Amino acid sequence: MRFVRLVLAAALSLATLGAFAAYPDHPIKLIVPFPAGGPTDIVARPLAQELGKALGESVVVENRGGAGGSIGADLVAKSSPDGYTLLMGTVGTNAINGALYSKLPYDVVKDFTPVALIASSPVVLVVNPKAPYKTLADYIAAARTKPGAVAFGSAGAGTPGHLTAEMFATAAHVKLQHVPYKGSAPAINDLLGFQIPSMFDPLQSQIAHIKAGTLRALAVSGTSRSPVLPQVPTFAESGVKGVESRAWWAIFGPANLPKAVTARLRREIDRIVKSPHFHDELGAIGVQTNTEGVPLPEFQRKEVAHWQKAVRESGAKVD
User: Fold this and answer.
1) pTM for this one?
2) What residues does each domain of the chain span?
3) Which of 31, 90, 155, 311 is the most exposed place for a label (fewest CB within 10 A)?
4) Strand ranges (E), the chain
5) What span, in angstroms and rounded, lies between the C-alpha atoms of 38 and 188?
6) 82-105 pLDDT, tens per residue?
7) Contact 310, 140 (CB under 8 A)
8) Closest CA to 122 of 299, 208, 32, 243
């Protein structure tokens, strides 16, 4: 009887390996949990194109925005663990949201298989040129003169832009008015139209407007200036210390993704991320690729702990 069980187990194992040896054999969906045109979408599309070439199958980007990325992330968490539905996860969906949302429909760690870290970017504070803020000092002075009167947009509650703004407000001892949107793109449209005067957002979704002069950058998060905006100081250089957040992007699958599929995806994605072409393409818009091959599981654990502390200290909460 024991021999029969061993034979059956071996047969099942071989059948499973055979099933995934041909992976992929049809198109893969890459869920971007924010609208098209935002910072996550900007990272996802070149990756999808290169990954499709590497795998020999199309990688189709689907934008499923809403609830700070939680709608799209939950869709992937509840999908079949076969490698055909992947998530372009963010610092929000897979680190911040676990501490921010009181009723999150998924667990940011347990409900996913971490595949590969793609890239990171500083958060930039931008203002409409019509706004009376030439420097960060001007912005702070206005916020202190009329607490709660200076509004800022973000891609949504709990996104890197939102929490970076909360960090900034705490560090600068000011009160701001948060105007959350369903993604960066609609917020940028309102910022360009001067419906809102300012916005905190990852750099790549703002860089073209900054260089065109249609938006003015006041400061960037992090410990050093961005190579693509060397003239823009960090918050610390402008006298506001402790605003050192970074947005990041990574590929996740549902929990229990087969090891063979995970290994194939990780191998191909790591190769793409380390390629000079991909590095230069994203570097031109202020995004730093994971050329050092930092393992995603360890990185995510540290980020979850960091953002739990940030959310707790900021007092931010979403029901």
Assistant:
1) 0.81
2) 2-120+247-314, 122-220
3) 311
4) 28-32, 59-63, 85-90, 112-127, 151-154, 177-180, 198-202, 216-220, 246-254, 288-289
5) 9
6) 999 999 999 999 999 999 888 899
7) no
8) 243
